[in-house]
Model the fold of this input.
Amino acid sequence: MQSKFLVQYEKREVRNAYAFLTPILIVIFLFILFPVIGTLWKSFYQDTSFLPFEFVGFRNYAQILSDTKFWSALVFTLLFALATVVLEAVFGLIFALLLNESFKGRGIMRAVILIPWAIPTIVSAQIWRLMYDYTYGIINHLLTSLGFIADKVSWMGTTSSAFWALVISDVWKTTPFVVIILLAGLQAIPQDIYKQARVDGAKMFKRFRSITLPLVAPVLLIALIFRTIDAIRIFDLVYVLTGGAPGGTTETLSFIGYNYFTGDIFGMGSAISVITFIVSFMITILYIKLGRFEKNIK
Amino acid sequence: MREKNIKSILIFAGVLFLLAFALSPFIWMMIISLSDRPDFLGNAEVDYIFTLKNYVEILTSRRLHFMDYFKNSLFISIIVSVAVSVIASFAGYAVSRLRFPGRIAVPLFVLAMSMFPQISIVGYLYTIFADLGLLNTYIALILPYIAWTVPIALWINMSYFAQIPVDLDKAALVDGASRTKTLFKVILPIALPGIFSSFLLVFIACFNEFLFAMMLTTDHIAQTIPVGIALFRGTHGEIPWGNMMAASAIASVPLVILTLIFQKYIVQGLSAGSVKG
Done:
């Protein structure tokens, strides 16, 4: 009698669970999985106005892989991800260490660091665009009046200065995210370890190197994975700040994909989107291998 | 003693650096938005004149449609955050409380789905919504936004639900409450801070989103603030920096205030899972 009741109860629990999960699974199937499969499917087709919609096998991929524009965009995107993630790790660590100390006004500082994070990316891109502006920009004004440069510089005029302009804007906007994650990691370190180290006579920098850094490393890695994945799909900043200029040399993978889509070349756009996904997936795997997550989980 | 001195110098320098880092671009935006002309620097003939005209123009000009963008952004973001909170609460409850086949697989699947870059979704979404005649409507943004933000909300909710003792559910269930009732009467009131922090993160994410909005909408009927600001054009071809910075300030100041007031929830939401996981 009782076991029959139990079986019924368990059945009802399972039914409940699936009912509770139905909405989330439906939206994810319809608006993520289905479009992703659609993109994969379209990447093997010729899909553009005035030409027949037909299966072309790997032609879109072959065309992209033989295009120097793609390779330069790939390199540019990876360099952008590398530069931003390294700088964000450095600044993020500095600010997190600072905000983990106790001093007057710490609460306000913890709020202030969130301001760049709260500003929409497009807005921050426009602010930086104004600051880099040749005529009106405060950066040219400061550098010339302080005597660092003799003449105004067209920051979007060369690939390398446009690259750093993008990197600086992105670092400004997203460092707060790294700070918050790292701060949570720092707060999880037991204070007793530091007390013991002080008793043993370990100096400040020694304590940082042999206690703080190793203990916060796993959290830093997680923050950097999130940041790398985000940096590889960068689009909005490029769209506003450089628009791909000069001469398309600051185009990123997402930017190329977007241009194909708006240029009504959906097959090619789909193929490059698939490649973007594969690149970001491979980098995640690489990180997880490097971080030896299996070991950390134990 | 010496270490203490070094430390306080470092802290002082760090605070100055942090203030300069976080605030200068924001302050510069405010200064230009309140200036008569954007070129008062380095131009001896132009003085800085304080004015509100940039804001007045932005808020009253019918041609710029700025209030439309703002209204669209607000409406879409609120609908999505509410929907995501409900969907992710049910899902979070099932994953953290009920025993069923796939208990581990479902959250991992949902997280994996959030790994796809937006660009690999948006092209086909465009095709779907074009076929359905839904381009340039709220629905074309609301539905993808829900799917795009629900994974993070689920993970935040899970980490909060997991901290609530299971005995509370059991007590309610013994009293004859259904699972749905348990969720709403027992769990949600306790987990409200967690739900609220995922609500805030989802709201801000939707308010800021650009690529979907850019592809799936075409004019002020459904375009959101980021698109409006990205496509901002002056009447004479030159960039109206004063107006643009005023628009930027209007778009970001509410978010900044929201973030400063609810700092605690946002920090908890952002760091949920990443530290324990």
User: Anything to note?
Assistant: The radius of gyration of chain A is 25 Å. Residues 30 and 113 of chain A are 37 Å apart (CA to CA).
